[in-house]
Amino acid sequence: MQRRHFITAGTAGLTLSALPAWAHHGWSSFDQKRPIYLEGTAAKVRWANPHTELELELPAELKLPADLATRAMPAQSARVDGAALLQAAQLPTRKDRRWQVELAPLSRMNTWGVPEIKNGDRVAVLGFTFAEEKGEPILRAEYVFVGGKAYGLRSSPA
């Protein structure tokens, strides 16, 4: 992800500091016709707004779970065909072991009841990366799987 720095000034004299923040990406740069499945260990979790983010460490060999296409998916208020996304899910072609994953805003994570993800937790995500997997290894999550349960991230529960 691109990193932007913000300068802040303190009230007691001038205190300058650079605070890193990930640049927010809109949906237009992501290939929404090619759902990508990732599974691994959460690292560097940021459980805050504008949206929850985590770095996902993938195992040396990533595989699609045998039951992936048949998993029950929660209904969302937005038109998202979770079953079709699962059936079309692919592994990334690139071999990066660490991916930056953008989840939903914290308020939506709370509405779905997603348990707070912590460093070391096993997590799976289904989402989209840049067209032709160009650029940095970033995945914009459509669904997150935590503790054996799937949570929708595009909208509120239906």
Describe the structure.
9% of the residues lie in helices and 35% in strands. The protein has 158 residues and is mainly beta. The chain has a single domain, classed as Nucleic acid-binding proteins (OB fold (Dihydrolipoamide Acetyltransferase, E2P)), CATH 2.40.50.140. A hairpin with a 6-residue loop joins strand 3 and strand 4. The longest helix is centred in the middle third of the chain and has 7 residues, at 82-88.
The helix-strand sequence is EEEEHEHEEE
Named CATH architecture? Beta Barrel
Largest sheet: 5 strands, mixed, barrel
Q: In percent, how much strand structure appears in the residues?
A: 25-35%
Helix content: under 10%
CATH hierarchy, class = Mainly Beta
Rounded mean pLDDT is: 86
SS elements, strand count:
8
Class of secondary structure makeup: mainly beta
Calculate Rg over CA atoms. 17 Å
Strand order within the widest beta sheet: 3-4-5-7-6
- Judging from the principal axes of the Cα atoms, what is the shape? globular
Distance between the termini: 31 Å
Look up the CATH topology.
Answer: OB fold (Dihydrolipoamide Acetyltransferase, E2P)
Low-confidence stretches: 1-25
Question: TL;DR of this structure?
Answer:
With 158 residues, this protein is mostly beta strands. The protein contains two helices and eight strands; from the N terminus they run E-E-E-E-H-E-H-E-E-E.
